[in-house]
Amino acid sequence: MNLKGRDFLRVDDFSTEELLHVLDLATTLKGDRTPRLAGHTLGLVFAQPSTRTRISFSVAMAQLGGMPITLQASEMQLSRGESLGDTARVLSRYVDAIAIRTLSHAELEEWADVATIPVINALTQDEHPCQALADVLTIRDRIGHLEGVKIGWVGDGTNVLVSLARLASRLGMEVVAACPEGYDPPADTPLTLVRDPAEAARGANVLVTDIWVSLGQEATKEQRLRDLDAYRLDSTLLGLAADGAIAMHCLPAHPGEEISADVLYSENSAIWDEAENRLHVQKALLALVLGAV
Ligand code: CP
């Protein structure tokens, strides 16, 4: 399957077969350090903070024999008025692919329109597709299959939920999301929306949540904490889930807010495997879009 030269801005940019191919290759490449990308460079353009995404992309390139270059938007001429288009044109002459974190999805699309190299979404307000790949790989690793799995989401209807629901629906999983009024995901997200967290949790094989105050939402923090208080992923909700259910969270976590510490650090928690899987899926994605497999 040839994904060379492709952008990955949204889950739906890839066919179901292509998404499964990335997951399968991620499993194959776990622990693999063959220098398939020797001489290749990945530009990491981050307008927002990141621990997992930036570091896992950097390590992925290193494990594949290539080199990452972190480009803080604030340290480039972008911050002094050089246009995004001209920056994309110039970077296309230097690096082989770019991973971009910016809140505006329209801005990411502008990068992709101008760049002549693969552009990868490292998180926008609309989607976090690399996170969704890692989430689904984690589910497959821990549960053993994907078809028929029930995912119960509790809390804010974030970009992480949107990408996870889009990927899960393509792979035969059911997503039931419990979000308070005012915190719904976009209406076209393929999931069942409920208001009662117990309804999302009951019989679920996977329980997932996300932080309550995302990047750019600090000004409304107190209101958000009040509105979301009944939507904490805790041991009571976990007790309603199916036997052997796993808890997931893309991190960073705020124990006591969206997830209780006893769930975050429990035997049911797949959260640390989920973080590790960011590395494996991004290795596969980079190898594929750079034509190295
Ligand atoms: N899950 C995630 O995207 O983490 P970072 O914000 O640390 O990259």
UniProtKB/TrEMBL annotation:
GO terms for molecular function: amino acid binding; ornithine carbamoyltransferase activity. It comes from freshwater metagenome. Residues 6-140 form the Aspartate/ornithine carbamoyltransferase carbamoyl-P binding domain. PANTHER family: ORNITHINE CARBAMOYLTRANSFERASE, MITOCHONDRIAL, ORNITHINE TRANSCARBAMYLASE, MITOCHONDRIAL. InterPro entries: Asp/Orn_carbamoyltranf_P-bd, Asp/Orn_carbamoylTrfase, Asp/Orn_carbamoylTrfase_sf, Asp_carbamoyltransf_Asp/Orn-bd, Orn/put_carbamltrans. Residues 147-288 form the Aspartate/ornithine carbamoyltransferase Asp/Orn-binding domain. The keyword Transferase applies. SUPFAM superfamilies: Aspartate/ornithine carbamoyltransferase. One of its GO terms (biological process) is L-arginine biosynthetic process via ornithine. This is Unannotated protein. Keywords: Transferase.
